[in-house]
Amino acid sequence: MPREAPVVGKAYDFCLWLLPHVVKFPRSYRFVLGERLEREVVSLLLALVNAAYARDKTEILTGANIRIEGLRFLLRLAKDLRLLSVAQHEYAAEHLDEIGRMVGGWIRSGKAAQRQQG
User: What is the residue extent of each domain of the chain?
Assistant: First the structure.
């Protein structure tokens, strides 16, 4: 079993922080925006876990990057609708940026390893 990738831990912590905040969304937004945020953040976490075990990580990590970008827009929407405070949005944005940088580095290191092999 591979050692847990640091980005998986960061994504787990972000998921752990975000889910309780989404539960507090008003009913009118809970089932549209709330469920989508929940689904995307959990899907991001699972994609990163899958990448940790995959031989060819590039496709999975590219999908994770797309999820990160989608989460950025969903979180911005939640802030603009005043479902998240500005401070909560800043916290989430900082953590998503860090996760995105880590995923990008993981992609680059995988591509560099592929170039060395062949």
Answer: 6-117
**Cα separations in angstroms, 80 against 27, 86, 95, 100:** 17, 9, 19, 22
Give the architecture (CATH level 2) of 6-117.
Up-down Bundle (1.20)
pLDDT for the residue 1 = 41
Tally of CA atoms within 13 A in the half-sphere of 12 that contains its CB: 7
CA angle 6, 69, 57 (to 5 degrees): 45
Question: Looking at residue 68, what is its pLDDT?
Answer: 98
- Could you tell me which of 54, 44, 37 has the C-alpha nearest to residue 7? 44
Asked whether the beta carbons of 106 and 98 are under 8 A apart, the reply is: no
> How much is the pTM?
0.90
